[in-house]
């Protein structure tokens, strides 16, 4: 029986990246739809859940993507609402690569830390975007004491409140609109993640180099200038000034491998929801 993946993208034009990875992850056929919303997804889900016998349903799967994470979260909720009894198929959420990117970065960093960061302070600079939010969830589930920064307190607090509701985690919110306030926000941190928009410099080298508590750093930005000045996007657990550094390309191969592995996992059973926790579990099993 053919493995069919239906790509439900919240953007008008569905992501080619996600289509390619879907094939590379083992789908036999991928159908990509753009402009999908909670209002128009119903018939697509019906088509996926009513067509195959229970034992064959695992060969049909759904992937929710697009550049907008809140739109993806709302779409995933609408998809799940259509499921009942054993009329369901497995579904993965990875809006803007948020889950797979964050999972790869956090898994690499946790491995560098020797496995445990429980009770340690983790600061996610510009943590209000899709990647930062998912990294916050994964680090908090590891027991880290997580703070996210934003240029505005309002935005940081909105995201922290959302994460509390959606994932039952406590995340502190800090306004850090410039280099000085972000350096201050990193005081006492063991881990610093930079998840700002492409080309936004978030932390000066002099500030992290002289910070006595930072041991682990990762930067998701692969478009120079990088978020963490003085690291290299190719860094793969490289020691710089005594800190272990991960750059976006350094953990990029893990990110792609995790994405492919999650697609393969979708076809193993018909009742899986691959969101932050499950994608992170997969990444941890792979590093
Ligand atoms: N390696 C990979 O495979 C991969 C995959 C996906 C994404 N990425 C990269 O990962 C990073 C995070 O992605 P994302 O989609 O989560 O990011 P995003 O939504 O574009 O931006 C994240 C946050 O950056 C802050 N920001 C925007 N402009 C800024 C500026 N000039 N100075 C300081 N902060 C600024 C904003 O926060 P506030 O408005 O709240 O301050 C925003 O919420 C990006 O660099 C992206 O290119 C990498």
Can you offer a commentary on this structure?
The protein is an alpha/beta fold. It folds into two domains: 4-93 and 254-286, Methylene-tetrahydromethanopterin dehydrogenase, N-terminal domain (Rossmann fold, 3-Layer(aba) Sandwich), CATH 3.40.50; 101-246, NAD(P)-binding Rossmann-like Domain (Rossmann fold), CATH 3.40.50.720. It is built from ten helices and twelve strands. It has a seven-stranded mixed beta sheet with strand order 7-6-5-8-9-11-10, with helices on both faces. A five-stranded parallel beta sheet has the order 2-1-3-4-12, with helices on both faces. A hairpin with a 2-residue loop joins strand 10 and strand 11. Helix 4 crosses helix 9. The longest helix is centred in the middle third of the chain and has 15 residues, at 98-112. The radius of gyration is 19 Å and the shape is elongated. The protein starts with a strand and ends with a helix. Bound molecules: NADP nicotinamide-adenine-dinucleotide phosphate (NAP). The site of NADP nicotinamide-adenine-dinucleotide phosphate has 24 residues, from helix 5 and helix 9.
Tell me the layout of helices and strands.
Blueprint: E1 4-9, H1 16-24, E2 29-33, H2 42-49, E3 60-65, H3 69-82, E4 90-93, H4 98-112, E5 121-125, H5 130-141, E6 145-150, H6 153-167, E7 171-175, H7 179-185, E8 191-194, H8 205-209, E9 216-219, E10 236-240, E11 243-246, H9 252-266, E12 273-274, H10 276-286
Parallel strand pairs: 1-2, 1-3, 3-4, 4-12, 5-6, 5-8, 6-7, 8-9, 9-11
Antiparallel strand pairs: 10-11
Helix pairs in contact: 1-9, 4-5, 4-9, 4-10, 9-10
